[in-house]
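Consider the following assembly input.
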Amino acid sequence: MANIKIALAGNPNSGKTTLFNALTGSSQYVGNWPGVTVEKKDGILSGTKDVVIQDLPGIYSLSPYSLEEKVSRKFLVEENPNAILNIVDGTNIERNLYLSTQLAELGLPMVMAVNMMDVVKKNGDTIDFAKIAKALRCEVVGISALKNEGGLEAARKTVEMAKKSVVEKGPGKQPDVPHVFTGSVEHAIAHIEETIQGKVPARSIRWYAIKIFERDRDVIKDLGIGVGEMKHLEEHIRDCEKELDDDAESIITNQRYDFIKNLMDKALSKDECRRNKASLSDRIDKIVTNRILALPIFILSLCAMWWLAVAEKGPGTILTDWANDGFLGDGWHLPFTMHEVDGKDWDTAQADFAKAEATVEAWEAGEKKASVEDEETGEVSEEWEIDEAAYEAAKKAEEPDPGQFGVWVPGIGAMIGGALEKMGVGDTVKSLVVDGAWGGVATVLGFVPVIFVVFLFLAFLEDCGYMARVAFIMDRLFRKFGLSGKSFIPMIVGKGCGVPAVMAARTIENERDRRMTVSLATFIPCGAKTVIIAMFAALFFREQWYVAPLMDVIGIAIIVLGGIALKKTRMFAGEAAPFVMELPAYHMPTITGIWRHTWNRLKGYMLKAGLIIFPACVVLWFVMHFDFGFHLLEDEQIDQSILATVGGWIAWILAPLGFGTWQGAAASVSAEIAKEQATATLGLVAANMEGASTAAHITNLFGSMSAFPKLAALSFMLFNLFVPPCMVAIAVTFREMGSKAWGWFAIGFQLFVGYVLAMSVYQIGMLIAGGGFGVWTAVAVLVDLWCLWMIFRPARKEAV
Amino acid sequence: MTLNELEVGKTAKVVRLNGEGAVKRRIMDMGLTKGTEVTVRKVAPLGDPVELTVRGYELSIRKDEAAMIVIRG
């Protein structure tokens, strides 16, 4: 016997996701509905092997307007599910039943699971299931998905009904469906049913007839109802409209709600004393969406997110450092097991040994001074004079054994390197595996802590209901440039990482708005981009402390101005999408819920990243260490590498930006793999520059690239911050856009912005600094004027 | 009088919905139909949108969408 397919349908915020998770556990599969960027989830019902639960997107109705509704309708009428499990929020039952009446009209066996019964009971309300079951011709049970009560039973009941109907199905048998409309409307529907007899499966004939009455264009087209036939039906419809003094769609909607109201008068009794008392959600909202407090509270939560993800001493950074240096790299001490040896702690012992090594190296090279540099900025952190005595003493220094300072866990990188050495593998292969291949994997995994923290925080905010309030608060601002408050969330997320930011755009229903948000979301400097900002601020802009925060301001400015400009173009112009949004009651999310939410996203990220970043890093390692003759090169010979040669071929493109050399090109290209690679690559490609430290190398590199090194550095920073994001984010952009053409549009737009911004700053900066007026200065000015026109021209009036 | 003109805290009954297409349908789908009672709960901190209480739940719509809804106090 074939699979049983159960459709799980219900309003957003009805607890559907919690129920779905409870029913399918870890057998879930998450993808997209074909051709659209709407998430598709299905899974096998726990305890069965062949019952598929198809989760439909949360919808309020089966109208033909939004993507989610269309996708759901298509599934329900074309894919022949055997039964429907309709989840209804018991605390909000009137509005929820509006969808239920429509589902019931499809004629499929249906079980209604009234969720949140625990809250209903606590509120002192009672719901008469029997009356509802009779009115809607379906089974009705009560459940509490959060407390894991009743969900599985409801699903099993649905399966029973599905199996029964499979057995009993006769050709053209018309099932029992509710009749919710009044005299003349029912009359018209009956006529329509006669006309479409045979064109549709018998069990759904009523649903189709009602849709035609509403003049649903999609249905009329799909059924191939001719103009002549329609004209005949129009007469009936118009009669009703005249009689009830309203249009067909409104008549249907009103009568549905009237029917529900009557039903509720009989089946729902609310506790009178609670009726006027403010609920907990209301009390929370009194503060959270308060006229005065809302914005400060919101900014506070943004700061919390920022602190979690990228703050220097925050959990995100601690985890990232541990992951990069410790877990994946050399190794780490188990917490609480560290102690001192000989009066020194681990960090001091390492530092002392590094100094000894530097002394030995310097003396043997004939120097009189030795120095050590700071790992992150590449600058000299300490310098001292050396003599023979110091040298002899330094030679005797022993490398500290980490195991003596606490319980030491070797990092994976060190273990791989160690294993290879034991196997007697040559240096080249060792470098390929440890630096290239493992380096690639480590780059992917090194991101995971930040992304994990961001996802976790977001999942909490989304699941508890706060995100809707964020959209509510910020909507007015975003209206100004054609988006809605919902577009704000991806931008906040982008401060941590662009990958989840682009994915967060999914919640935006309007396709145009979604596409615009996806194109703009990554202009906010993410965690990786912040690494670039930090290095450049330290190297070139010590006195100009404002440069670092300026990058965030520029990011926001690009989003706002870019949004305004895009809204005026033909492809994005049009009526603002309606912003009609439910503000769900707050509730405490469950740990399993948040975890699953977070894990799904994280898994997707890691897979994508693994498939893209890993091979890219291996390739990068290869082109950095080999020349065209496939000879392995020394570090200082990097200017003979494939990377250098190819970089040289394309460097001229970057010339107007002030860093048109193979080093500038190489660093920028590597930044597309992962933004923080730019800093590491700069260090490598500058290896043969003058200077005693990495910092000096890089400073001199920029000095060699341009007569205005600070300007070139600024231009380099702007370019890498505002062109398309890293490869993984680009991949996600393509997916969320849903079509290759739109993906390329976003990339092209971002490339344009980053390039023009860097070029304008460099060229006009040069002009101001006395570098003269050249061809490129003119080009920069002209392009800037065009951009200003795109932003400030009058908006198009006609909707497309 | 239209819904956007209703003061915070006041309740009214929906008389008619102007407008057409997706916006109107959406507003009706969410329960704002003829004869429904609606209360203005609050206005967002930046002045727009407004939060309404409809059929026992909280709904947020923009002022110019509320302007499509004719009410009687």
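Residues 627-792 of chain A form one domain. Ask yourself how this observation constrains the way the partners meet.
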